User: Which sequence fits this backbone?
């Protein structure tokens, strides 16, 4: 099931970068967008569901999408992606966009 939410996408604007790659992130909130994190079966032509996403500044987004290479990110890729998703979900709950019953 693919989940898309215009409200979550819009909520990413001006937020802190939740991926925050060490040595890369400048946390320029004016560049923050909702990015889809790579997962099984997704590629450039197929985006992951919005559940597998995070708030990312343009610098971190470039690294996640492979336009810029960063050794620290590659060595700790899974840790960065998991942390970003958890931080993003916590922020969405705080904003009232995700409600846990």
Assistant:
């Amino acid at each position: 099931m693919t989940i898309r939410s215009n409200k979550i996408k819009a909520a990413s604007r001006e937020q802190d970068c939740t991926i925050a790659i060490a040595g890369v992130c400048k946390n320029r909130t004016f560049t923050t967008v909702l990015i889809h994190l790579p997962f099984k079966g997704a590629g450039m032509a197929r985006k992951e569901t919005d559940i597998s996403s995070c708030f990312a500044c343009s610098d971190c987004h470039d690294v996640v999408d492979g336009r810029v290479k960063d050794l620290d990110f590659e060595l700790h890729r899974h840790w960065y992606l998991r942390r970003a998703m958890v931080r993003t979900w916590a922020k969405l709950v705080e904003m009232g966009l995700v409600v846990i019953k």
User: Anything to note?
Assistant: The first helix runs from residue 6 to 11.
